[in-house]
Amino acid sequence: MTDTVTSTREAGEAPSYREMHRDASEFASRSDYLEHELKIMRPRRYGLNLIGRDFHFELEDLVPAIAGTIGIIAMYSAVMMSWANGLSAAWPDVTLGREFAIAVSRLEMLLPVLLFCVLGSGIFNPRANLAGNHGPMIPLIASMALAGAHPLALALWICAFGLGLSWVKGGSRLVNLTSQGTAGGLLIFLGFSGAMSQIGSLKAWGMGLEGQMGYVALVVLAVNILLYAVLARLGKRWLAIPACAVTGLVVALALGAGFDLEFTTETGLPPLSPSYWWGSTGQGWMLGLPNMQHFIASLPFAILAVAMWSPDFLGHRIFQEMNYPKGTDRVLMDVDDTMTMCSLRQVVGTALGGGNITSSWGTYMIPAAIAKRPIPAGAILLGLLTIAIAILGFPMDVAVWPPVMCVALLVGVFLPMLEAGVQMIKESRDAQAAGVCLFAAAVTNPVLAWAVTMLLDNNGWIGDRERATRLSLADRLIIPASVLAVCLFAMLAVGMFEGQYGIPALF
């Protein structure tokens, strides 16, 4: 080993991960060992990353794997049910329901996960975060269906726009143009609104039980608040999702809410042939292949989805930067590589018969960052776990049960987002930008708020007035104004302001 290290150094190369790896017993604490692992890793970009040579599996990798699996089951189910309801309302000859939604969800959890989680982020490019689900787009799926959008046409547009933006390094540039205050305000709004949404969903579930057992939701929340506080005090917040999800399950069952938990998903495989899903109007999606009208109707929604990627990716990378020690830039997620992975996963997953709208996998990245773990090992574990659950079937029924799903999203995604946003606001100029971002998000939505605040902040109209002097004309005005114009056009085109302000869709 010594000869290897010496020869490597004589050649002017840095020692490899295998040469610098040390046993955990040699460190004063587990945290020191995990930080050392982050500092010595040198992921191979679009190369072969091997277990033992380039990374190791650790116990902490199980936590983001379990958290990401719970999150993706819930999100995939929500997406597919939204498509089923929207298409059934929009197309007179289409009738889709829960069985269809579960089958498509399981389809998305098989080959796409193997290709882009296990192989993509786990083996060939650990700098790319896993390609997961685009949560903010879920409320728009019904509007997409009513507008005449086709899932496959939408996927092709998203892939084209995403690959184009990643090719010109547009994603990373937008992240670099977002100040601390703007990012902090965005995280606070997303964290708070998401937390309130999950609390509201859990309360509604409790009141909807036979006998209006709203107290079950109250006890579940109270017990998990206490548990989350204890984990934070012990420095074990990375255990929050599995610990709190299991606690929510046990408490709800103990209080007699178990009659609401039904096991209806059977073990097996969904139809795996793309021709089943898209080849005929009498099976699968019942839509057939997309035509020109479908592509036109899908265009503004695709523009909006890709425009929303940058703030989404920004939030996930911030969690790594805040929890990883200095000197770990090599293991931070690469925004442009993640955009490439999401683009390819979008078109491949949908071509096989899926309907997911892809983005960076937040329910994996946030707990992974808190646990101080890099991407690859957890990505492999998550992929294998997701595939196993897709085949077994019945665990999906548990994962989407409100005491499990709502609690997991609350403690694993939205509360950490809220905390990270608060931590980013360190000076009055950051607070000013964050305040404008919060106000704009409440008036419109988080994406438009991010675009508006970035334009104002980069020109010195709010926040750090010296910031404008350090930026070029393109970074200060042309790029932020173009982003704002594109986001505003896409939102007006698809009628995002119709419900709030009565402004009808342009098309």
TrEMBL record:
Keywords: Membrane, Transmembrane, Transmembrane helix. Signal peptide: none annotated. Residues 10-23 have a biased composition (Basic and acidic residues). The chain crosses the membrane at residues 62-79, 100-124, 144-168, 180-200, 212-231, 238-259, 295-314, 375-394, 400-421, 433-456, 476-497. It holds the Pfam family DUF3360. The keyword Transmembrane helix applies. It comes from the Bacteria. InterPro entries: DUF3360. Residues 1-23 are annotated as: Disordered. This is DUF3360 family protein. It comes from Halomonas litopenaei.
